[in-house]
Write a structure and sequence with these properties.
The structure is a homodimer. Chain A has about 475 residues and is mostly helical. Helix content of chain A is about 65%, strand content about 5%. Chain A has a three-stranded mixed β-sheet with strand order 1-3-2. In chain A, strand 2 (about 230-235) and strand 3 (about 235-240) form a beta hairpin.
Chain lengths: ~475, ~475
């Protein structure tokens, strides 16, 4: 079987895992968790076995030898498959299966630990997760520190020292903006009209917005979960989930706009190349730029609500006499909260920087697992001026570590930075600017399709940003956006 | 890896297919059908490869050689695994994958053919399905006719000649009962009060009934589909689906009671032996006996409704002044209809016998594919006195052939026969009889658990019936039941 057929077969198996994971988060009966974990572990090992097999390696070598170098997409595909293969080849199938089991157990322990706000329940699992992360980093190798080896899996060709530098600058510049934004927001006393925002009305309004953004419901769907996410189950099967707050329809709406941003990226990838690098998302930092662009640059803008606020009133009668201006204050309020997923734009990155610092200290062994809660609380107080009320609202709040996602957090802030930069580049075209001001997003989506989606993973993320915007990612547009919106 | 570990691993993979199939029927976006078909085809081939591998065969031979014969369950497991292995070994992995592709294409063609009521769209696919069925029957071998080799996959150790004999008797005795039941029912002019039976109220009432029957919602769930079914996704994951008629709550209710009957069997199998014969359902004829027992023996009985009619009135106010007696006439009405899935107990088997006859003629090559509609209509007229209005209401109405299920239909009637016989045996215990008359089904379920569920597939279906009821399956109790209920 030739290389690309083998790649497509491995992808087919990986997408089977995605179906099982999606079902696990949405519909799985409680007693079936263990069996499902065994199925996922089997599939992970099976896919890994195929992607490190003799047959795969020789097909890759053959394709490389036969490559004439005249087709840049083909060359990029081979280059990225080689990168992936070299990385996978350093990890044994046994380690993949063991990691999957550790993550399943850790995930259950984390749920219980968070429920009881008892870090000691999660601590031994976090130790195993960090141990296995370090083991993998050692196998993969790294130029500077283990963190870079983990980050590579989410954001290729990006070192943790670059991130540290970027985040240091950001933190310095962000601190006064956040503080001022919070002060200003407090003075506006933002609120939303009371009364139930019915589930069905929320679902219908969200679906109308998603369709307007360009989401294809014949290639995707929306379901309900505790933790909103977007996942790809196949080239024409993009699933979004959200949760509903009956007292605040904007909670599910911004969740949907965020996840639809991810979904549009997935639906916009070249579907004939599904599974190949040229048909795959390039990195989490680029992925998150798509979700944050739609959620924040668009979803919290006055232009969007000039069109959609009257429509929202049709779904939610209590908005009828509530002025648009006050509504905009509400959805753009800034406040210092303990919970990352509830944080606003002006303070969100402070949460990310804190997590990056803790992960890095753990991997450098500057702190040990038992120090995590105290370190978290101390760093949190430095940025936010108070301590979380308990670990459930502190170091136990996020799902990521429990799923083995150490090194993942920085990509959220990269996403914010990229989103602002991409949006600025897009609206520098007067046609896109004027359409966007009329809340017509067809030209904007077309720009994203052409400049981001259609490239798949053929360029490094930083190069893709350079090609799309004319400069490598920096914080300029993002800080300008925050200043304009919040101050 | 020892034999049982290998069996469990193959089961694990087969259950992954079940997850994908369930999702395909419930939530899959329309454009993703082809990719899903490829995934299912891959998994079918992969599972088949493992179950016919050298490693599997030698583990089986080793276990057989080491078997001391002192543990009857262990011996039964080895005997049944040998039977399955010999059968699987005769089919190539290539044939399994090809069959899966043919079925996917046939299924889509059937949907379209039924929609347009145009048999010619489905005909070439049906030809391929019959060809592959005959090819498999030849590979498997048979003592009498190819039909038996196919039937063996659903109802082991049962020949098509036995079925033919049983059905001939049944048809002769059933014809006058059906005719009289239809006449009598017509004179009662059965009806249900008009007005919408709201979806949510139907779902809540159904769930209450399912729980009362003993269905464990921590090991299962109910979703919505066009075609109701019950499927097992793991040892603690039994999924039921139904559809809703807003003008008639009894449609989804009896659908649920039927599928919950299947679900209770699956939930009652020894879960530690999941994947082994001792932890598996024995046959479709026994499976269907469980669903039909709960749907018909229980669900359409006066005893059930003495308890549940007042409860139903709480959900559906329009029943308030409608007498129970008239309601019982409605749910036990008999009529000559074209559609099998809407048929009542008194006429259902006439539909099955017709399908059995046509399948048998096709496999014996007594008729060709193009003759199917005319043969169907002629046989239908003989039994029902009129012809279906079109092929969508005739030979295109059922999903089974399009999914490769040739030889499957007879098990429905076996289920009806077994259900009556099991119910009679159970209520011959006075304690079970009196509890059942009070609509307390705990003792009945305990009897089914002990006499059917706990045995898994360690006995042949006919032997299991003999052990549970004292005699091999015959039509006596069933005909008596129909006579009592309808005449």
């Amino acid at each position: 079987m030739n290389l690309f057929d083998q790649v497509r077969r491995i992808t087919l198996i990986e997408q089977i895992s995605s179906v099982l994971s999606w079902d696990q988060e949405t519909y799985l009966p409680s007693k079936s968790a263990e069996y499902r974990a065994n199925q996922l572990s089997y599939l992970a090992a099976h896919a890994h076995e195929l992607s490190t097999s003799e047959s795969y390696l020789s097909a890759l070598a053959k394709a490389e030898a036969e490559n004439l170098g005249t087709d840049p997409t083909h060359s990029a595909n081979l280059r990225e498959l080689r990168r992936k293969s070299d990385r996978a080849g350093k990890i044994s199938t046994e380690l993949v299966a063991r990691e999957s089991s550790i993550e399943s157990a850790a995930h259950h322990a984390w749920i219980e630990a968070r429920r009881q706000s008892d870090f000691s329940i999660f601590a031994p699992h976090l130790q195993s997760l960090v141990d296995i992360a370090l083991q993998k980093a050692d196998l993969w190798g790294f130029p500077d520190e283990p963190y870079s080896a983990l980050l590579e899996g989410y954001e290729r060709n990006t070192s943790s020292q670059e991130i540290a530098k970027l985040f240091d600058t950001l933190q310095d510049r962000l601190a006064p903006i956040s503080a001022a934004a919070v002060e200003k927001s407090k003075s506006l006393n933002p609120s939303l009209p009371e009364g139930i925002y019915p589930l069905r009305a929320q679902q219908d309004f969200n679906a109308a917005v998603a369709a307007e953004m360009g989401f294809d419901f014949h290639s995707g769907r929306i379901d309900t979960t505790t933790h909103p996410f977007c996942t790809t189950l196949g080239p024409q099967d993009i699933r979004i989930t959200t949760r509903y707050d009956l007292n605040d329809f904007t909670s599910s709406l911004f969740g949907i706009m965020h996840e639809v941003g991810h979904g549009l990226y997935e639906q916009g990838l070249p579907s004939d190349d599904f599974g190949l690098p040229s048909g795959s998302a390039v990195s989490l930092g680029i992925h998150e730029s798509q979700s944050r662009l739609w959620e924040n640059q668009i979803g919290r803008s006055a232009a969007f609500w000039n069109k959609f606020y009257p429509i929202a009133k049709g779904y939610f009668p209590q908005l009828k006499d509530f002025p648009l201006e006050k509504f905009l204050h509400y959805i753009n309020r800034a406040e210092l909260s303990e919970i990352r997923v509830e944080a606003d734009e002006a303070t969100y990155d402070l949460h990310i920087i804190l997590r990056f610092q803790i992960e890095r200290m753990l991997l450098k062994k500057e702190i040990s697992i038992k120090d995590v809660p105290a370190t978290w609380n101390a760093l949190f107080e430095k940025s936010f001026g108070f301590q979380p009320k308990d670990d459930a609202h502190g170091c136990l709040q996020d799902i990521h570590w429990s799923m083995g996602g150490i090194g993942y957090f920085p990509t959220y802030t990269l996403g914010n930075i990229n989103a602002a930069q991409l949006f600025q580049a897009a609206v520098s075209d007067p046609k896109i600017k004027s359409a966007t001001e009329e809340a017509d997003y067809t030209p904007l989506l077309a720009w994203l399709r052409k400049n981001i989606h259609h490239h798949g993973a053929t360029h490094d993320p930083a190069d893709l940003m350079l090609l799309a915007t004319g400069h490598a990612p920096d914080t300029h547009d993002y800080l300008k956006h925050l200043t304009t919106r919040y101050l």
